[in-house]
Every structure is written in C-alpha cells, then in structure tokens.
Amino acid sequence: MRHATLVLLAIVLAGSVLMGQDLPASKVPAVVRQAFHETFPGATKVAWKLKSPTYDAEFLVNKAEVTVKFDASGKWQETESAIPRAKVPPPVNETMAKQFGGYKVIETQDMQRVDDTRLRYEIHVENAKEIVKVMFYADGAIITRSAKPKAAAKK
C-alpha cells in the first residue's frame, strides 16, 4: 500500500512539473515581472506558471488570449497569441486541407520565438481518435507535429 501511495504521489508531482505550476505573481522574479509589464502594459487577467526553465504568463490583451515566456533573467523567449482562423495564411490552410482534411480545427495561434525570426502558426485539430498539434511556417511547411489519443488528451 505504501509503495502504491508513493507511486501515485510521484505521478502527481511529475504531472504538475510537466504542466507547469501555478505561481502567485509575488513568487515571480521582479526582473521577469518588470519585463512583462514593459512588454505588455495593457495585459489583464494575468496568471503565472513556472514551466522550468521559463516563467509563463497567460493573459488577455484586447480580449485576445496570449501566453508569453521569459527566462529567469527576464529575457523574452516566446509569445503565443490566439488568432481567428481567418488570420491563418492561405498556404497553411492548404497544407491543413491536404493533410488533415477529416479533422476539425479547435485552436489557432501565431507564435514568435527568440531563436527564430519567422512567425510560426500552431494549429490544434481533432478527429474521433486523436488531437494533433501542428506547427507551420507561413509558407505552409510543417515544422513539427505531435498527437495524443483522444482519451489521453481529456485530462
């Protein structure tokens, strides 16, 4: 019984690290909070998470959902912004239609990263069996693709 309890505890702790730990703003380094407020002065409904090694802020700007990542020194790493499907470039939509024609689009985002000057588009799609996250460049080229079985994704 003790072994089963320890295994369950390890699974829960590992899951919270992988998904990120909710963090009160007071626990976010001041340099990170300052960089955030300078970059997004109009942000509302800010929620912080520690997703080691980054501090992630999830918030709204002009009613749009945004997530930004900073390292512990306050250096910007990445910004993901929810966008309407109509803002996805035509070449991305063409690739989506060819490779994921039977899937339903459930989320569309654009992404900027410190290590890549090109804008990326992250599209989440689903069918009866799986949820797929696909990353594209604006020209429709697929950068990465990952999938989860539908049952596993509903956690």
* CATH hierarchy, class of the largest domain: Alpha Beta
Number of E-state strands:
9
Structural class: alpha+beta
**Neighbour order of strands in the largest sheet:** 1-2-3-4-5-6-7-8-9
Q: How many domain modules?
A: 2
pLDDT under 50 segments (min length 5)? 1-18
**Amount of beta strand:** over 45%
Number of continuous helical runs: 4
Element-level helix/strand string = HEHEEEEHEEEEH
Shape, per Cα inertia axes: globular
Could you explain how this protein is built, in words?
With 155 residues, the chain is of the alpha+beta class. It has 2 domains: 20-81, Nuclear Transport Factor 2, Chain: A (Roll); 83-155, Nuclear Transport Factor 2, Chain: A, CATH 3.10.450. Helix content is 27%, strand content 45%. The protein has 4 helices and 9 strands; from the N terminus they run H-E-H-E-E-E-E-H-E-E-E-E-H. The chain has helices at residues 2-19, 30-39, 90-99, 150-153, and strands at 21-23, 44-51, 54-61, 64-70, 76-82, 104-113, 116-126, 130-137, 142-149. Strands 1-2-3-4-5-6-7-8-9 form a 9-stranded antiparallel β-sheet. The chain is globular and about 45 Å long. The two termini are 25 Å apart.
